[in-house]
From TrEMBL:
UniProt KW Transferase keyword: yes
A GO molecular-function descriptor: L-aspartate:2-oxoglutarate aminotransferase activity
Record has Transmembrane as a keyword: no
Pfam families: Aminotran_1_2
CDD domains: AAT_like
Family of this protein: Belongs to the class-I pyridoxal-phosphate-dependent aminotransferase family.
Signal peptide (UniProt feature, chain positions): none
Alphabetically ordered keywords of this record: Aminotransferase, Pyridoxal phosphate, Pyruvate, Transferase
Top-level taxonomy: Bacteria, Pseudomonadati, Pseudomonadota, Alphaproteobacteria, Rhodobacterales
E.C. designation(s): 2.6.1.-
Species in which this protein is naturally found: Loktanella salsilacus
Cofactor needs: pyridoxal 5'-phosphate
UniProt-recorded name of the protein: Aminotransferase
Main enzyme class: transferase
Catalytic activity: L-aspartate + 2-oxoglutarate = oxaloacetate + L-glutamate
Amino acid sequence: MKLSSRITHITGGGSDGWSVHYRALALKASGAPVTLLSMGEHDTRTDPSILAAMDAAARGGNTGYSPVPGFPSLRKAVAARIERQTGVPTGPDNVIIVPGGQAALFAAHHAVCDPGDTAVFIDPYYATYPGTIRAVGAVPRAVLAHADNGFQPLRADLDAAAKGAKSLLVNSPNNPTGAVYSEQTMHDIADVCRDNDLWLISDEVYDTQVWDGTHISPRALPGMAERTLIVNSMSKSHAMTGSRVGWVCGPAEVIHAIHNLATHNTYGVAGFVQDAALFALGQGAAAEEAVAAPFRRRRQIVMDALAGQNAVRAAPISGAMYAMLDVRATGMSGEDFANALLDAELIGVMPGESFGAGGAGHIRVAMTVADDLLADALRRIASFAGTLVR
């Protein structure tokens, strides 16, 4: 019996660079003192007050089927948060609750792409982007964002990729690069979408983690609310990665269509998880800032640890919980450097090539370990790279 072509071609084949991470995990499991800097997972867990709200909701009986588009109270709270951020009137009919940001990405592309349509995304990219596009039957097309331009995509490259396409996926603040798209970049993106009649899917899961610049949601730009779908979740803003609660925000008719998809797919999000998310959002911006604070602090730790040497250079760390480090001075690819680093120093990082051609010659460091461990690891990375350069 033969499996469907759609499911067997989700990944594009070849090395995806994740073998370094799996090797680091295996070494750590065997007892080796590996410092893991390869996963975007908070080193602090979900706040106990959020867990208490979840527990109370479950024990109180909210364990049955929930409304497929989400509880009206949570949809209203998410809509209010988005309206505060964008200034665009937003109501519950503009929001559907889904099981995490990945489900939101899948649903958004399903809503706007037919099989065979071209869906554009920026390279370097979050690891699942091209596979998500293939999974809905669309054809991924990458726009290269160059390290020498701070990983900001160029208007000319966006224009070229947009021809004949159906959608454009952007992510700012960006995983893996840490780039926060400038006002000019966002206006270029909006112009390209309007000029080419593209749907814009804006992955904003790191919207609370901005260190330099300003987070600009393209939904707020002229003529964009009717063609923009925002993807977001509680994972990064509230350290609720395992709770799997996210949302898509967009025009009401699109949200209604995604409701129909969810009826035949995920069939809603657990009610007690939604209650916990509602409680978490109710804690306001202060709670989000507390979750983001370690990464703001660690950004400076990375820059301090790399000062005074030239073997490793950090791309601008403007947002998110990652540092993209340029190791091209060593003459090695990111994947070769990551493997050699793991062997020599027992430090696990992600090769830049894991995130596309734009990451070649780089490694991604997740700032998700204690401050002292991060500082020590960065100094050792720089020292190791220095021996290769010399």
